[in-house]
Design a protein that fits this description.
It is a single chain. This protein has 489 residues and is α/β, with parallel strands linked by helices. The protein has 3 domains: 277 residues, Vaccinia Virus protein VP39 (Rossmann fold), CATH 3.40.50; 37 residues, no CATH class; 78 residues. The chain contains 13 helices and 21 strands. The strands form 5 sheets. A 10-stranded mixed beta sheet has the order 1-17-2-16-15-3-6-8-7-14, sandwiched between helices. The radius of gyration is 27 Å and the shape is elongated.
Length: 489
């Protein structure tokens, strides 16, 4: 009988600690991960002081917001190492706030729908579906209706997602532990971390966070209860909330109390005095008797740990970018205002649609975002351009895909990586005695040969000729051959 999840937690923690030790040891050596700058994005000339095409030496500037494509475990290692090419020192102990919204549903569909702009203008037609439906993309400001395409994850992304859930919740917790430890390394002494989850894995992740950040540094379990149509469920109450766990690095942390407008019942207690100011009488808690409380002296209701005043992103909201797991800007605004100050550095390593950076930008904070999904990165980049954000760096890990695969503990034998790629393409491998390099397969119920080629070789005529020869030697008469590379250079 397999061990229960509770029994495996100690093993998950022990394995995670060993992995972190290897990572931190690597940071002290010469073989450090580096960030590669792909683009210096200038959303607005007015914000940058530059015309498009002009460029200062970015290493001479004090700070750059940055959007990084790649596995966040590698991204955080690179941030801890620093980025001399862009003047970035090690970020250890420099981040005041980290927000994370990691995937928490093992049945999630990681395909992303993207709306491409239309080249023709159309008149509004009442017979067409309204904006927000899944049948048709919305009209843009110019009256154009775009075309929706479905972007599937790359081979690398598919592997990352499937590996996260390979053994269910156990795999997920193995993924989260070293990442949470590196986030602690990045946090300043006055820093806070918020992790957004739901009922699937939230309670297990809290156990890991107690271990990593200390139970004494747990601050809140925030309940974000959202509105929406309540569907009937079989023999249980409908699920209508997420949880957000809040921890701090130490007992001395940034905190700014937040207020929300008074409710109607509270406001009804106030009446105008002889001068017309709204006031009410209340018991004086210190001197006895009564006292007058004026409405314009009261900031509002203190925000508590149940957030029932922030709805999900409306289908017709201006902030909507048609990203499946997009969260509302007001949610981020509350977190950012509570646990950071102006000019604080804020990070989000599961950045999705880029709401963290978009809100941080509006409130004078500096930001770092990363995501393993290329569609998420492209949506975020465009969102920041449309918002006319300050110039920022679009980066990736140097030799990223090679690092992502070779850092995995799964690849120990020749052909292990090829087997993953064959599986992702839906092909079955030939027996090892026929296929010693373990890089050949076939599509079931078809006559198609699949060959996984080396990422260090150029795919050209010689590769195609080799594939044709292999096609003939393996039973012969195949309809076609496919050549795939697990890594792109």
């Amino acid at each position: 009988m397999p061990d229960s999840l509770i029994d495996q937690l100690s093993k998950i923690v022990a394995e995670g600690k060993k992995e972190v030790e290897r990572i931190l040891e690597r940071l002290s050596g010469s073989n450090k991960l580096t960030l590669q700058t792909n683009e210096y994005v200038l959303p607005s000339k007015d914000k940058s002081g530059l015309y498009r095409g002009q460029m200062k030496d970015i290493s001479e500037q004090e700070w750059h917001n940055r959007l990084v494509y790649g596995d966040n475990l590698l991204v955080m290692q690179a941030l801890l190492a620093g980025d001399p090419a862009t003047g970035l020192p090690s970020m250890r102990g420099k981040v005041d706030l980290i927000y994370n919204d990691p995937p928490f549903d093992s049945k999630a569909d990681y395909r992303t729908k993207i709306t491409l702009p239309s080249v023709r203008k159309i008149s509004p037609n009442p017979s067409l579906p309204k904006r927000g439906t899944t049948d048709s993309p919305p009209l843009d400001k110019g009256g154009n209706r775009g075309v929706i395409i479905e972007q599937k994850p790359t081979v690398l992304e598919q592997f990352a997602y499937s590996d996260t859930w390979k053994d269910g919740t156990v795999s997920y917790l193995r993924m989260m532990y070293p990442r949470l430890v590196l986030m602690r390394e990045l946090l300043s002494e006055q820093g806070s971390i918020y992790v957004h989850l739901d009922w699937h894995v939230g309670h297990y992740v809290k156990v890991l966070m107690d271990e990593i950040f200390g139970k004494e540094n747990f601050r809140n379990e925030i309940i974000w209860t959202y509105f929406g149509f309540k569907r009937a469920t079989a023999k249980k109450f409908p699920q209508k909330h997420d949880v957000i766990y809040s921890y701090t690095k130490s007992a001395s942390y940034i905190w700014n109390t937040q207020y929300k407008p008074h409710n109607d019942q509270y406001l009804k207690r106030f009446k105008p005095d002889e001068t017309g100011r709204l006031c009410r009488s209340d018991v004086n808690p210190t001197g006895g008797g009564t006292r007058k409380i004026y409405l314009d002296d009261v900031e509002g209701d203190i925000v508590d740990s149940v957030w029932d005043d922030i709805p999900p992103v409306n289908p017709v909201a201006k902030e909507r970018v048609d990203y499946t797991t997009q969260k509302p800007e007001k949610l981020f605004e509350r977190i950012i205002k509570s646990s950071s100050n102006e000019n604080s550095i804020i990070a989000d390593f599961f950045s999705g649609s880029g709401t963290t950076g978009a809100v941080a930008e509006k409130h004078g904070r500096r930001w770092i975002m990363s995501d393993i999904g290329k569609p998420a990165i492209m949506i975020t980049r465009q969102r920041l351009i449309d918002q006319e954000a300050k110039p920022f760096l679009y980066q990736s890990i140097g030799d990223y895909q090679k690092e992502a695969f070779t850092s995995s503990r799964l690849f120990r034998r020749i052909g292990d990586l090829s087997q993953v790629v064959l599986n992702l393409y839906g092909s079955l491998p030939f027996p090892d005695e026929q296929n010693p390099n373990r890089n050949l397969g076939y599509i079931k119920n078809s006559r198609t040969l699949v060959m996984v080629d080396s990422p260090s070789k150029l795919t050209g005529y010689a590769t195609l000729k080799k594939a044709q020869e292999l096609r003939e030697s393996f039973l012969g008469g195949w309809d076609k051959e496919r050549i795939s590379k697990p890594l792109n250079k």
